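Much of our argument rests on the idea that a fold can be written as discrete symbols. Part of our work consisted of pairing the sequence of a single chain with a tokenised description of its backbone. No coordinates are needed to read the tokens, only the vocabulary itself. The record that follows shows the chain in one-letter code together with its fold in token form.
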Amino acid sequence: MESKKFKSFLFQLIISAAIITRGYYFETTPSDAEENPRLSDVRYTGEPDDPDFKLPDSFIRKFKKDLMRELTRKCRKGFRQARLEHPELQFCEIPKVFQKLPKWFDLRNLEFVTPTRDNSTESKCKASWAFGPVASMESAWLESHDRIPSDSFFLSPQNLIDCAGYQGCDGGVDVIEAFNYMKHKGIVKEEFYKYRAKKHRCRERLRARRYKIRSYCAICPATIFTIKKFLFKYKTALTTVISVRNLTAFKHIDDKILSEDEGPRVQRRLVVNIVGWRHDDATDRDYWVVKNSWGKKWGMGGYGFVDAENNPLHILDHNYLVRVKEDVIPFENEPEDFE
């Protein structure tokens, strides 16, 4: 009998891990109210001759917290391995969302994103490291200031290309250089600092208003539910570093959902923005709405759709949030609470 109980315990442990992990990776909008019945079902799953065997609630809670700690450690290690860690980089506190997340959420509907840039010279000036953070900064300002028109509020990527760090038009995905410059010195509107698709001498003494961010942080753990919570809570486009293996397919993305990115090696790393998500009822799968800086001919008017569950392009792995107001508390050490 003890052997059967142990087998039942082990079986429930495996199922619990699968369901808890699925709650963070795959499900559309798992709320606390929805999760409890599922976990209850798991606790009472046993062999036919032992129907009363169950896992204690305290065990489930501890297992869930330990799992999230492990996912977070793995995520942070990924930032180090991808050489995206920086002495000033901090990680965001996971926001609490007390309502069911919608199946569809798109910052364009809220007018919290600016139109896509016609950066058709991307092949000559590889500066997505500047365009991605600028798009997030524009989004944060639109979310925080009601009177800013979303169709004409353009900040200057060229300001970053000329003045922030070492990357210029040579590629790279070191967005921390952009964030630090936007935080400490600020950037001007594009009308005062035009995009020229080439690195020039920095013009920091322009007599124009400089826009700044107050803070930025990296998002861990890298799960679907976590990314959704940040988008829904802060309503700001995320800065996202992706790795592209099939560059030809990515360049010619259309209205279809990109569900795979196969290739022998990474052909290019670049920076885009996640601005929302949608749910495909036909396949019962979620996908991200992604803003690029390659002009309106890319994708659907400059936006592409990327499958959420398969994690193509490693789109979940390296995401950042920027804020223009102090409402995000970064973790300084290991997080203690993942509820």
User: Anything to note?
Assistant: The chain has two domains: 2-78, 87-331. Helices lie at 2-25, 32-43, 57-81, 128-144, 157-163, 175-184, 224-234, 247-251. The first strand starts at residue 91 and ends at 92.
